[in-house]
Amino acid sequence: MSLTLSAEESSVLLRDYRLTIEPAVDATYSLYAKNLLDNAQALDYLQKIAHFFQSPSILVTASLFAKRYSVLTMASAFYAMSRYDKGLHCRIENLWVEAEYTKPWLPTIRLIDRTVSIPTKDREKWRDEILREIFANNLAKVWQSLAKISKIPKAILWENTAIYVNWLYETKLGEGASVQEKARIQEDYHYIVNLAPGSIFGERKNPLTDYCGPKVTIMESEQPVRLRKTCCFYYHTSDEANDYCISCPKIKR
């Protein structure tokens, strides 16, 4: 028997976690995710969406697109895994990026196969399978492709990813959670950023660990923040000179 999300579960993911079940009405900016692994098609897509970011180069576009793609791939999958104990199928062959012409540009993700898995006796093994689909069988492949066509260092792409892993698990996923769900969220988060082996990510070692350290206090923020180790190049899209993110390593502190 195929398992699916309940109507209530789907409603949360559709409303708050960038999941969709419908193709975009205007498919101009939509993309079958696997096409990102083809150099020519990936380059064409980055060139097509560059104006949404006011990006001056393929390198900058690759970085800013990677931020959106990572959160699209992870957000609903992590919520389903850590809140519902259900696994979405997020391998790259199962995903469409759906996007309309809007500003700000906020694409959604559509799954071809919308069935879900559930843990049996070994939740840790089940969790590894979900994470491997998200990372090794999706994000790692896309990052490799983007690095090849734009010359962007993969370290930047993985730090972009880590920022959203931190945000999701520290801020979003716990909203309205029960005590049991909060414990599961914390356990999953600790495993993903500290204990998961490199093979889960399609890398020799866990590429997130270096970007998930403690927060620090800085003058630019009332709340503690994690300082980035790499620059995401967002400042290249601003009209103001040296308009860096508050955590940017280019800021002299």
From TrEMBL:
Residue span, Aerobactin siderophore biosynthesis IucA/IucC-like C-terminal domain: 63-171
One Pfam short name: FhuF_C
Start and end residues of each Ferric siderophore reductase C-terminal domain: 228-250
Protein name: Ferric iron reductase
Lineage: Bacteria, Bacillati, Bacillota, Bacilli, Bacillales
